[in-house]
Amino acid sequence: MDDMLRRTRMDDQRRSQRPALPACVPGLYVQHRDRGFVAHITASEVAFSTVRGLTVSVPMAYGAGQATADTAEWLVSELLGNAVRACGDHVPLVVEVYVTGRSVQVNVHDPAADLLPHRSAVAMDSETAESGRGLGLLDMLAPGWDVVSSPVGKQIRCHIDAK
Questions:
Q1: How far apart are CA 7 and CA 134, in angstroms?
Q2: Where are the domains of the chain?
Q3: CATH topology of domain 26-160
């Protein structure tokens, strides 16, 4: 019984130390998850801006360094932009960002399971490259990123090692 009471107190203490999240509004629903957050959004400038800010502040509140949080923010921005280009304006998206040890995990879900990212055959620094640089940068900043099926379509997962 004492052990159960101790665990309950520890859980309450952890909850009180979590970073503040914005209030839910139409198109933006954010919840805490273990050492991070989950945002259910409808693509918009306001939602993207809010999620980018949380992508820096929340991991840092759980011990991630500034460089790692900045990399996570860049990845979220790139993945959200790709989702809008692939799926269209006002697409529903789910963004998960959380700390794992000293690293950060970024997952972005979109409803287009059949629209998978494709790397360009043109080199990133080529003058003829018009697009596709983002996936090359993803390879550099989150080597081993992958795409899996999810209940809402597909999920792109990126693991960022601490810097």
A1: 44
A2: 26-160
A3: Heat Shock Protein 90 (3.30.565)
